[in-house]
């Protein structure tokens, strides 16, 4: 059982026990004055209070000053009315101009229909927002004609449209296999009008869960309030596809008057765009952090072991490290995601390894001491002559169907092995792979290989990843957060992100190690810089009751 105990994370958020899934809502509570909510970040999450599997969904609640160290609080909302008897599901908060807070959430009714309900803080002067009142008007929205009673959930944070002095709220739905989002107009969050048409629809995608819709600045102006629009603003539409349990996003233009959103790249983004994270990652949500003027995105990371093992462990799931999300002004085609700077306060014992040459077919151990809680930043270059000289044409590389780190080609794979034991019987590989097309152009892929991450039998192990844009003159760069059973990786400054759950049996406690590796047949890779920090545990004081 030692290995099961070891799997609990040290600085990723998780409850003390039982099941957790998507984030319900999170926000920086600093809208109208520095003292109003005393600067607490609130996290509400989907929680089963009695078991390590999904069910009895209530709202767990925790608060933080820095998004890293958390104070667990009592349950915020439980199923106690006919309109949420089968679960208090995902919702979102909206600040009104007077600084008050409204919460919209999906209730699964006594008949398991999905309706939207309104709640608000019982005592707005309580910075911990311990108690919530459910509106007497509930449910405030029921599935409209033509929409299935179980296909109507997860209201977004509302955004304000000045021209008609009212709010918009988006809700995910579907018709057969066509997923779409409905937009409602409201002035008071009690009465709603369904707008004509759908904001966006994509055949073949199925139900859209946890839709998120938010503006990003294309001119480097940091994070934007959810209601921002106008010049220099684009809108991100994110959907969670429950058929695949993956999150997708595309960047486009929002026309509030026409109630439409048009993807920038109608072909690539129609379906609907790129993965937010290529690994185990689902039901992400963002919020605008007024405190630091940034948009923060985070997400539920489920388990890839068996339910039986989760029951033995007594817990299931963690949350990602919150990420700052911005528009990539260099490529103009993708978002950038990067761990909030607060996580760097946990760094300790920096170790530097510069200009390490990694020859084809070799591994280089890095002496970093205890290697179960790490933050790693590394940069790699390949000799220009090798990039130009290689003739192999293999631009159709696909991380997921490849042999992962064990495959071999002229220019990859190479990168790092984390949570590896000294004999490399267990290893999680984070790597780059460069493919060359017949016309000579190069494509770089960023992948994470779980295939040899554990000797345990009851696991889903895959190679995750995708193409990552690399601009002329850029080194290949990676950041990796290792936290026991979580590996969160960011390629090229967060253009492509991959999260894995891994469950080593040997590479645990003091036996976990880090290596550089290069399994290319031709390329000599130089790790121009590698910085490895140990990470202290975040503090998670005991639950108040
Ligand atoms: N799980 C919630 C739903 C949501 C789904 C229920 C995905 O509200 O659609 O636990 O997180």
UniProtKB/TrEMBL annotation:
Compartments reported by the entry: Vacuole
GO CC aspect terms: vacuole
Species this protein is from: Acorus calamus
CDD domains, sorted: GH32_Fruct1-like (cd18624)
GO molecular function: beta-fructofuranosidase activity
Pfam families the UniProt entry points to: Glyco_hydro_32C, Glyco_hydro_32N, INV_N
Similarity field: Belongs to the glycosyl hydrolase 32 family.
Gene name linked to the record: INV*DC4
UniProt KW keywords: Glycoprotein, Glycosidase, Hydrolase, Membrane, Transmembrane, Transmembrane helix, Vacuole
Highest taxon, organism lineage: Eukaryota
Domain Glycosyl hydrolase family 32 C-terminal: 342-533
Protein name, UniProt field: Beta-fructofuranosidase, soluble isoenzyme I
One GO-annotated biological process of the protein: carbohydrate metabolic process
Residues in Glycosyl hydrolase family 32 N-terminal domain copies: 12-339
Predominant cellular place of this UniProt entry's protein: other
